[in-house]
From TrEMBL, chain A:
TM annotation in the entry: 225-246
Signal sequence interval, chain numbering: 1-19
Keywords, ordered alphabetically: Membrane, Signal, Transmembrane, Transmembrane helix
Protein's name in the database: Uncharacterized protein (TIGR02186 family)
Taxonomy, superkingdom: Bacteria
TrEMBL record, chain B:
Protein name stated in the entry: Probable membrane transporter protein
Keyword Transmembrane found: yes
Organism: Allosediminivita pacifica
Residue ranges of the TM segments: 12-39, 51-73, 85-104, 110-131, 163-181, 187-205, 212-234, 240-259, 271-290
Localization: Cell membrane; Membrane
Amino acid sequence: MRLSALLLLLLAAALPARAEEVVLGLSKDQVRISTDFSGSEILIYGAVKREGPIIEDPPLEVIIAVAGPSRPLTVRRKDRRFGIWVNTAFADVDAAPTFYAVATSGPWADVITDTEDLRHRISIPRAIRAVGSGVDEPGIFTDALIRVREDQGIYQLNESAVELTESTLFETAIEMPANLTEGAYAARIFLTRAGGVVAEYDTTIEVRKVGLERWLFTLSRQQPLIYGLMSLAIAIAAGWGASAGFRMLRNQ
Amino acid sequence: MQIYLPIAEVSVNALLLLSLGLLVGILSGMFGVGGGFMMTPLLFFVGIPPAVAVATQANQIVASSFSALLAHLRRRTVDLRMGTVLLVGGLFGSAVGIVIFNYLKSLGQVDLLVNLCYVVFLGIIGALMFVESLRALRKSRSGAKASRRKHTTIQKLPLKMRFRISGLYISVIPPILVGFFVGVLSAIMGVGGGFIMVPAMIYLLGMPTKVVIGTSLFQIIFVAGFTAILHATTNYTVDVVLALLLLIGGVIGAQFGTIIGSRMKAEQLRILLAGMVLVVCGKLALDLLIRPDELYSVGPAGQS
């Protein structure tokens, strides 16, 4: 991996560029969900290409954010009514990523200012667009959403998880859980100095089902009746098979 | 051994699912219940999304019930005539039930209603069966022969039919009504309805316990099959890989369950089923009464 990063660095030297620029590599640009899929780890590594000498102060920092496809969702709160716990208040969130991981090369406060975060929507609360309906304080519901999903490992903030060498080579590993949603995952890499973004680089990681998983999923959406009948046929056949098998065992 | 489920979109342990299927299959064969009322909460616990769990277990119930039904057919403990009469009522009932379900969904709070339905019905049925079978067990121990069931107004209704295997000569109206009522409830609660059907056949229709189980299985297969197709075509939530794992365990369990069931006394069977129903009821009631750890829940949009 170090070697490929070095190669990238050499490659970077051959390209015309701005003051500081990202040259990126991914351990894989496609995550294939097959039957034995149980989560994936993606190594994101790259190099900073620059014209002049390395500026030591303020130091260079790196932020890497990976976001899954966004979906609208509803957050509900339970309250006690007549002695039992019932869903009462709720808030609709217009778009929340199905997966979101942020890794930084240092403590959050040191790598980016609030204004820059607001502009680029990098931190977890900023990446979620929350528009409340039916409640007074949508902020509480957004916080709850982040808390629930952080507990599930779907939203991650990994401070100081990006390893930055000589202000030039960087790498981090993003842990992706097993319950991934299919789609294009946007990976964004930001270079910052004194909290301000100096360079940005975007790429996508394709997450898709393959083989049997792909076939079954497509069939269930496009030919639901055939899919349903097939499931029933399998059920009946299995039931009959087990019954016949047991009778044979008993007769012996 | 982790396996990825294409529709549920989660990765779960295959062995865990196999043993879940086995456990519920044994219950199915022993008691003639589909086991949906136990399978659904167990699948939630494993981390399967609720919509997928409800739809898929209907498919799995078809498999284990079919396996158990074949065993009962060989033993001649299925009253096909009674089963068909119940089924006619049942299909009408589930059609009406789906209408009611959609109406409640438009009002919101359908989850709460389903939970309350479970607690109330499981509680009443479990308690009644427990008390009755305890009394029967005590009576049979003391040597006295269990008395024949009383013949009440049910006997006076028209359209009488002879159900030879059940040893009954009664009007078809009560069985159709029972089937209809169970159909309505099973559509709302998303289960085969065996746990309501079995006691209804024993106590309301006066059928012998041994025949009740096979007959209930016969009826469940059709109701569950109907439900599974409906879910697959409207909500796309039947996961065939999940169903396959559950039913491999289920069909084997059902065969064992039938063997265990045939070696036990009817009263013992009933008291065990009652105990099981009460445990599930208690668990669901606690969930409603105890303050949850996380007050907030996240779900797909548009289902309030």
